[in-house]
């Protein structure tokens, strides 16, 4: 079983790289951020509070019921809700087994798994065969998210809002005590500020293939 761990801050390109690597090696892919987003969205929809442990734990217990293709999961307000529930250790604990089980027994009988998130290389799969921590300047990441949502026609103030939201989320994700965002000691660091998707993919392949 081969496990590839991709971690990094919001909109650094984790999901894009993880999907490309999974397709290339024919491995299963798990977007672990979607699990936290599902918990955050469920709390909001139930009228609960995302910083309330009981509300968040109740939602985490029912994460399997959430449709992971719901477009509402991808919004920045769901991202903020995800980052709040993700700071609660009991929520992380509930999602841990599912993620480890995915890595140990990838669905579809695949020979490997690619997981992307914040703590895959540090907490979920510390024994992963390959660990990549991808970063990019926050302005570049905000620009990418902005283009993803609004295309070329977005208003400048929309960009500023996204930039502020990403900064706030980075801050919360890096400074929480439960599984903070940080590179594993044995992770390869990949700065993608000036690299397009294909260049990042080729660089990752060369790191993995040694
Ligand atoms: O796609 P983006 O990078 O914006 O975010 P995401 O990967 O969907 O994650 C949403 C939020 O979930 C993050 O801001 C983290 O707070 C949390 N998360 C986490 O704590 N641990 C993970 N393994 C994945 C996500
Ligand atoms: O999963 P994460 O939030 O880290 O990022 P993503 O969803 O993979 O990428 C965020 C956006 O940046 C997407 O629209 C990607 O197409 C784009 N992107 C890019 O323009 N250049 C890169 N090197 C990586 C991603």
From TrEMBL:
UniProt GO MF annotations: ATP binding; CMP kinase activity; dCMP kinase activity
Pfam families for the chain: Cytidylate_kin
Catalytic activity as recorded in UniProt: dCMP + ATP = dCDP + ADP; CMP + ATP = CDP + ADP
Gene Ontology terms describing biological process: pyrimidine nucleotide metabolic process
The keyword Transferase appears for this protein: yes
GO terms under cellular component: cytoplasm
Domain Cytidylate kinase: residue ranges: 4-209
Keywords carried by this UniProt record: ATP-binding, Cytoplasm, Kinase, Nucleotide-binding, Transferase
SUPFAM superfamilies in the cross-refs: P-loop containing nucleoside triphosphate hydrolases
Binding-site list for ATP: 8-16
EC identifiers of the protein: 2.7.4.25
Family of the protein in this entry: Belongs to the cytidylate kinase family. Type 1 subfamily.
Protein's UniProt name: Cytidylate kinase
UniProt organism field: Emcibacter nanhaiensis
Gene, per the UniProt record: cmk
């Amino acid at each position: 079983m081969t496990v590839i761990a991709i971690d990094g801050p919001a909109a650094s390109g984790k999901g894009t790289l993880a999907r490309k690597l999974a397709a290339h090696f024919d491995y299963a892919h798990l977007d672990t951020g979607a699990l936290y987003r599902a918990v955050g969205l469920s709390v909001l929809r139930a009228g609960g509070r995302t910083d309330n442990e009981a509300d968040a734990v109740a939602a985490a217990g029912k994460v399997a019921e959430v449709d992971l293709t719901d477009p509402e999961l991808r919004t920045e307000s769901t991202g903020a809700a995800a980052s709040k529930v993700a700071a609660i250790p009991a929520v992380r604990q509930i999602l841990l087994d599912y993620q480890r089980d995915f890595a140990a027994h990838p669905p579809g009988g695949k020979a490997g798994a690619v997981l992307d998130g914040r703590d895959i290389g540090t907490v979920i799969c510390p024994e992963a065969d390959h660990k990549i921590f991808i970063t990019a300047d926050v302005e570049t990441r905000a620009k990418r998210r902005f283009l993803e949502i609004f295309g070329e026609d977005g208003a400048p103030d929309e960009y500023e809002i996204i930039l502020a939201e990403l900064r706030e989320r980075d801050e919360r994700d890096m400074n929480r005590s439960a599984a903070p965002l940080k590179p594993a000691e044995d992770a390869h660091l990949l700065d993608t500020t000036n690299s397009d998707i294909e260049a990042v993919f080729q660089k990752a392949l060369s790191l993995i293939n040694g």
